[in-house]
Amino acid sequence: MSKEISYKDITGNLIVVSVLLLVFFYDYLNVYLGFFDEFIALIFTLVIISFLLFQSKIKLYKQEIYIAVLLLFLAIIGLLSNYITFKAGHYTEVEAIIGDFISFFKAYIVYFGIRLLANNINSKIILDKIVKYSEIIFYFLLIILILDVFFQIFPQYSRFGIRSFQLFFTHTSRYAFAFSFIFLMLFPKYFKKNNLFLLFILFLGTLSLRVKYFGFFIFSVIFIYYGKIISRIPKKAFLWFIGVVMIGVALIFKDQLIMYFDANSAHSGWSRAIIMNYSYKIGNDFFPLGTGFGTYASHFSGKYYSWVYQIYGIDHVYGISKQYWEFISDQFWPMILGQFGYFGLIAFMGVIYNYFILFLKQIKNYYDQSNYKYVPILGLLLLLIDSSSDAIFTQNRAVALFMVFGLFTNLQRNFNVTDS
Asked: How many separate domains does the chain show?
């Protein structure tokens, strides 16, 4: 018994430390943690393999099985596309394919690894620790923020004519995500008990002045005041509600969003608009499977500089050029369409849809009706909003959130509830 408890404690503490490092200190310690999320994915890959080899029956929800099948389909599409384009004379570096493959699937590998460990870890204790340390870190960040307001210790950039804050994070979006994560972790603890404190956390995130953060802010406020009502809405009606709110947010910030789709922005050489517009062309030209892993709008397509940028003549654009490609992976959905084609786009939308259904069922059937049930759906909304101008699904922040998703899903009392 003592060995079992010791194993659970060690594993649980490693998960807690991993989540906190990925969310709060990954960028600051990037020299040391640059491949930490990939390392975690490797560990959980071994966990999954061991379960597949040695466990006679693996318990997963129906939606999780659908997700696993769709992810396998995406893997096949990507590798098949690499093979087809290679036979057509377009060579993609093996390192780019492998790196992009790992980057794309690491968050889901971690999720399923956590899920398979459901009976080997105490997910409630792990989550309680993450909540505890997230609150401590919040007060730490608050103190630093107050000092930064008065003494300008960290870089501050003007957005909309106002100073934005990022503290020791490498970008304002990382700062915003940190406060979003703190809000998610503290939401179950303070929901209905101290809503003003939750609003204060959200307010501090707005100091990043990131447009996409305001979208998350709106959804969060709705859940703070109407969470109980939302939990009683039928699933289909809830999905329509999410869609309507997202359209409303898009209309509010349409001037900022339209630049991503505007052909004039592409013609003027704005890298994000170019990446978005050419993803449609690639999707059509390489219908229906795209160009494969490591070829378009991903980090590794820039690091090993893909042939796609050259054949489309966009290899001279600032931020996309071989000499300076820092803006290549600034978005997520162009990568999906470009690398996996329309079939891949539909498959990934199916992954997101099934996660929505899974989390909505948790809201309906959560075993103790606690406020934990709202966190996964809000976290998924955060990822979707961020993905509009960030490849967040392939980054360390997604790995941290999917670890949390797995832990929350483990809190269900049995495996039959959500299949009803």
From this structure: 1
